[in-house]
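[SOLVED] Need 3D model of a two-part complex

Original post:
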Amino acid sequence: MLDIKLIRQNPDLVAEQLQKKKFTLNTAEFLTLDAARKQAEADSQSLQAERKQASKKIGELVKQGTPVEEAKKTVNETLAKIETQLEALKQKAQQASDALHNLMMEIPNIPDDDVPAGDDENANKEILSWGKPKKIDFEVRDHVDIGTELGGLDFDLASKLTGSRFAVMSGGMARLHRALTQFMLNTHIVDHGYSEIHVPFIVNAESLRGTGQLPKFADDLFKLEGEQNYYLIPTAEVPVTNIARDRIFEAKEFADGLHFVCHTPCFRSEAGSYGRDTRGMIRQHQFEKVELVKMVRPDQSSDELEKLTLHAEAILQQLELPYRKVILCGGDLGFSALKTYDLEVWLPGQQKYREISSCSNMGDFQARRMMARWRNPETNKPELLHTINGSGLAVGRTLVAVLENYQTADGRVEVPEVLKPYMGGISVL
RNA sequence: GGUGGGGUGUCUGAGUGGCCGAAAGAACUGGUCUUGAAAACCAGCGUACGUGAGUACCCAGGGUUCGAAUCCCUGCCCCACCGCCA
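Solution:
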């Protein structure tokens, strides 16, 4: 959520900045709504003030021994007015305030100054290219062919068990998948200093509102049946970031911010992506991810995003997977993000770089929705903190990258050096 | 699932219809004292909206009342015990 004062004071500037994100802010609607809210609240409040005074007067008289009914008579006029008007005024004020809040909840974050202009992913700007795609002097297979021929990757079976966009892994393949997870977790915990955390994979609507998935993107989520408004998490970002919801961290515990690494499955409905990536495990309803989440002081978030992105890159580098780092343009930037770096890994099977990590600084956007604060020692006041998150990395897609980049002429797959300690002596699948 | 007890400010915790935005303590901030620190003492110390007067907020939502942190209803959560189950 944006700071309402900011819109109030500079509606045109905010609208212009949001345009970079392809979002059109109806400033006239906003200002009208805000003015209506203010008027309605003022009316309702002055009447409430009258009521309070009248009640006080009754209280005093009663204490002096006047019978209640008689005391009420002295403020008859006020009581009558309250009776006829207050309820309606209160409702009007509530409706106006709700309408404004709903509007605020659907306004995306303002992009950072660094963010390049552009409509879609084609305008994203490459800022780094690491490693070179290996020359493969035999017929290149994609991960589906590799995994199916080798065994261990079965999409037909998954389709029987559930439906499309799922996979069954078995044997060495399943182990390689697990090895990747363990390697990522250990690297972030030991080398990068993150705290490991394990969280629920099911969250309530409030958590999803906090991070920005609701109310606008309900279609992307799997909602559970039942009386509770429960959802499967689309990313660990949701439960982990919401740790800070409705909290005020003391300056001491917050000096270096909070850094979490969390491994979870992620569930996405992929509504609206019917034709895309139907082959293989690039786009699944269920996938695993090792997520990095930071809650930091506002003055540190910019640096911390850089560091977090480097931590994600370190995984690709240690796996010796060629990748490029791009900064997303305004039109491709997510709803809650101020600035996002995508890491795209080279996939020989597609002869393309594909997204494997997305690292974003949300600024105070999520914190304002969550009321996540820290006590600034300089002001001694609770102030909004900043949230940052990034994949380090998407495990399923990393498996795809390993299979395709480490394939051999005879249809097998070499185990990357750094994963060998996790593979119990297996060096080739 | 059953029974009982609870949810109050950053934290602990008092408050059972008007004197309560709310005692007290802790923490925090400033000051006095001290070579410095600790201790002690003094003062300050919630949030949102509103130019302001003011209004709202004591888990959430309803209700009773002229008036609700306080009474009633519903829900959620926590604690204890019992039952059931991994």
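Edit: The mean pLDDT of chain A is 90.
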